[in-house]
């Protein structure tokens, strides 16, 4: 190859590099620090409620105050609004007037799981069970025979609310969904993966010891209820006003001999939530007001009072505008939103579902996703070339290792994020986030480098 061709190649062709060939030693040390904190967050926050409690506590310790409409807002002030304990918005007031727009990062803190039905507890064959209805997109067979824990709240008739969390501590019992032994699975093994384990088969094994000295029915169920009553003061009817959910009991773990990866429940999308929240804690006064949205209900369509489609976002932004005698419409029109959500990392074991040239890859950094959707980009917010250009420039200027992503081959499937709901509000919006292996499985895998680069990217967005 002549020198001239080599020059041409360098100047004209794109040559993506592995993030480890681009990261500085300083960044690498900071990456380990960041990932340790992230893993702590993951162990503490397995539900949206726990994610809100954890981030609000950290924020308050860093000087954030609960926002009150009408309060005086000065540059550098740190405020937050807790939406019913299930979603939250954090903001650092910028030097510029709010009419000049905000720099927003929106991610979600709900993850696929199994929710407890309103009338869940029953006994069969000398064992007690809880009935569940799964939440979000799961491969049901993956949720059998793994240790599970119960998280959530019970709103009692007297108006009090008790918080429930059993199964994560080594001294706790865990819970489990059973599966059929292989010896008798001749019929089950002929079914498709979608049909092999049904939704109504996802019943949680809760106990087996009957209450003694009683010949009545359902003595095991009674025994379980007695223990729940002793621990939480609840009775069976209280399940009707409970919000209990089954999540994997395991904590986050480093993966691989080189410890370069992290396995945890619910990287989608708490890995992006943490990446967008953490930079706020010691942020210097930004030019534009920095807004971090942690939304709920993305996995079931961003609906409901705590989802990204809720008016909660407008209410908060309008209240902030009013404090500065600004206008919500002006503000949104000049705002930018990075919809921070995970993408599917290329998995060579399942290479056939992806266009390798356009899929995101482990260790190539935060993945920019111009569009999501399915069947011809259906239902997505297709970001403009200009918006892509702006972020590409911003990330390069800030030494953020980035790549691009597309969710699988054309017509292979698809998915969505909160991006469309932000763009509908007249906000320029782009999807970007961490590539994930085994997305929506009980334990998902991400790379430390991609986690860290996503945080660096969000920092750059806030300061743009
Ligand atoms: Mn997601
Ligand atoms: Mn998801």
Summing up helix and strand content along with how strands pair, one would put the structural category as alpha/beta
Name the assembly state: single chain
For the residues shown, what is the average pLDDT?
Answer: 96
Number of strands: 22
**Looking across the biggest beta sheet, what order are the strands in?**
1-2-3-13-4-14-20-16-18
Looking at this structure, what is the CATH superfamily of the largest domain? Zn peptidases
**Termini, distance in Å?**
42 Å
- CATH class descriptor name of the largest domain: Alpha Beta
Please estimate the helix content: 25-40%
How many domain regions?
A: 2
The bound ligands are: manganese (II) ion
At CATH level 2, the architecture of the largest domain is 3-Layer(aba) Sandwich
**CATH-defined topology of the largest domain:** Aminopeptidase
Rounded to the nearest angstrom, the radius of gyration is 24 Å
Point out poorly predicted stretches: none
Give the overall form.
Answer: globular
Strand content: 15-25%
The total count of helices amounts to: 11
Taking the sheet with the most strands, its summary is: 9 strands, mixed
Description:
By secondary structure, this protein is of the alpha/beta class. It has two domains: 3-111 and 265-463, Aminopeptidase, CATH 3.40.630.10; 113-248, Aminopeptidase i, Domain 2, CATH 2.30.250. It has helices at residues 3-12, 25-44, 48-61, 193-196, 219-232, 267-277, 312-323, 328-333, 385-397, 419-423, 448-462; strands spanning 65-66, 78-83, 87-92, 102-108, 113-124, 127-135, 148-155, 161-166, 204-207, 242-248, 253-255, 261-264, 289-295, 336-340, 343-344, 366-369, 373-374, 402-404, 414-415, 428-433, 435-436, 444-447. A nine-stranded mixed beta sheet has the order 1-2-3-13-4-14-20-16-18, with helices on both faces. Strand 5 (113-124) and strand 6 form a beta hairpin. Helix 2 (25-44) packs across helix 11 and helix 6 crosses helix 11. The longest helix is centred in the N-terminal third of the chain and has 20 residues, at 25-44. It starts with a helix and ends with a helix. The mean pLDDT is 96. It binds manganese (II) ion (2 copies). One manganese (II) ion is lined by residues 108, 268-269, 298, 341-342, 417.
């Amino acid at each position: 190859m002549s020198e001239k061709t080599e020059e041409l190649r360098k100047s004209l062709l794109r040559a993506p590099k592995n993030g480890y060939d681009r990261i500085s030693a300083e960044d690498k040390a900071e990456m380990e620090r960041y990932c340790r904190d992230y893993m702590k967050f993951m162990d503490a926050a397995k539900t949206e409620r726990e994610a809100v409690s954890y981030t609000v506590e950290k924020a308050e310790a860093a000087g954030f105050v609960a926002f009150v409409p009408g309060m005086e807002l000065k540059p550098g002030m740190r405020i937050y609004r807790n939406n019913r304990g299930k979603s939250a918005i954090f903001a650092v007031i910028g030097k510029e007037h709010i009419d000049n727009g905000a720099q927003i990062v929106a991610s979600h803190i709900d993850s696929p799981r199994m929710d407890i039905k309103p009338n869940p507890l029953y006994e069969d064959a000398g064992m007690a069970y809880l009935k569940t209805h799964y939440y979000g997109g799961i491969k049901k067979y993956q949720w059998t025979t793994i240790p599970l824990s119960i998280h959530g709240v019970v709103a009692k008739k007297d108006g009090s609310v008790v918080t429930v969390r059993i199964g994560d501590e080594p001294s706790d019992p865990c819970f489990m969904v059973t599966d059929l032994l292989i010896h008798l699975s001749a019929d089950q093994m002929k079914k498709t993966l979608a049909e092999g384990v049904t939704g109504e088969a996802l019943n949680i094994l809760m106990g087996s010891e009957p209450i003694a000295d009683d010949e009545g029915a359902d003595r095991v169920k009674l025994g379980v209820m007695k223990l729940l009553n002793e621990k939480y003061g609840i009775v069976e009817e209280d399940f009707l006003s409970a919000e209990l959910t089954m999540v994997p009991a395991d904590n986050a773990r480093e993966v691989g001999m080189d410890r370069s990866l992290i396995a945890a429940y619910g990287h989608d999308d708490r890995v992006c939530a943490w990446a967008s929240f953490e930079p706020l804690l010691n942020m210097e006064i930004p030019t534009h007001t920095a807004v971090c949205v942690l939304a709920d209900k993305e996995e079931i369509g961003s609906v409901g009072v705590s989802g990204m489609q809720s008016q909660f976002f407008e209410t908060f932004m309008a209240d902030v505008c009013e404090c500065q005698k600004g206008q919500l419409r002006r503000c949104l029109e000049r705002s930018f939103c990075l919809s921070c959500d995970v993408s599917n990392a290329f998995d060579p074991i399942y290479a056939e579902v992806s266009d390798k040239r356009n899929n995101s890859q482990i260790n190539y950094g935060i993945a920019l996703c111009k569009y999501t959707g399915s069947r011809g980009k259906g239902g997505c917010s297709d970001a403009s070339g200009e918006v892509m250009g702006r972020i590409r420039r911003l990330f390069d200027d800030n030494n953020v290792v980035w790549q691009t992503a597309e969710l699988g081959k054309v017509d292979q499937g698809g998915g969505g994020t909160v991006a469309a709901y932000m763009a509908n509000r007249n906000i320029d919006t782009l999807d970007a986030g961490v590539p994930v292996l085994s997305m929506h499985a009980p334990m998902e895998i991400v790379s430390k480098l991609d986690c860290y680069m996503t945080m660096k990217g969000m920092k750059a967005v806030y300061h743009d």
